Amino acid sequence: MVTIMPAPMPELSFPPGTPVCVTEVTWRRDRSVEVRTVGVVDAWEEMPTGSWHAHGRKDRLWLRRLKLRKLDGEVTLLVVDDGTSIAKLKPAKN
Questions:
Q1: Of 34, 35, 36, 40, whose CA–CA distance to 67 is shortest?
Q2: Which residues contact 66 (CB under 8 A, 6 or more apart)?
Q3: Is residue 77 domain-resident?
Q4: What pairs with residue 2 in β-bridges?
Q5: pTM attached to this predicted model
Q6: What is the model's pLDDT at position 82?
Q7: Which residues on adjacent β-strands are paired with residue 20?
């Protein structure tokens, strides 16, 4: 397993079809919560938050999102930020 922190363009390191383990860390007051999601990269997208109080391009805050297909077929959309690390996994052997 090779761990790579999100670079300015992580989609170049993890193209669609790449099996990955995404670890997201969220900090609370006195502790952190770590969530891991395993799947195959489906797509990279930039989408606005939709938040009325976030400001940026066209008055929206744009976030990089990773569309991931989990092992059970479920598709999930993850926000890739400073608290996210992505590890490339070896493809499963049939």
A1: 40
A2: 10, 14, 22, 41, 44, 77, 78, 80, 86
A3: yes
A4: 88
A5: 0.75
A6: 84
A7: 39, 88
Minimal CA–CA distance to 32: which of 40, 42, 24? 24
Q: 12 φ, ψ to 5°?
A: -75, -30
Q: Tell me, what amino acid is at 71?
A: L
- Per DSSP, the three-state class of 41 is strand
Q: What is the pLDDT of residue 60?
A: 62
Domains in the chain, number: 1
Record the tokens describing residue 3, joined without a space: 């761990």
> Could you tell me the residue range of the domain that residue 36 belongs to?
2-88
21 domain-assigned: yes
What tokens were used for 26? 């969220």
pLDDT attached to residue 52: 57
Q: Is the pLDDT of residue 87 over 70?
A: yes
Question: In the predicted model, what is the mean pLDDT of the chain?
Answer: 82
Name residue, tokens 């989609």: 11
Q: Is residue 72 part of a domain?
A: yes
Cα 61 versus chain centre, distance: 17
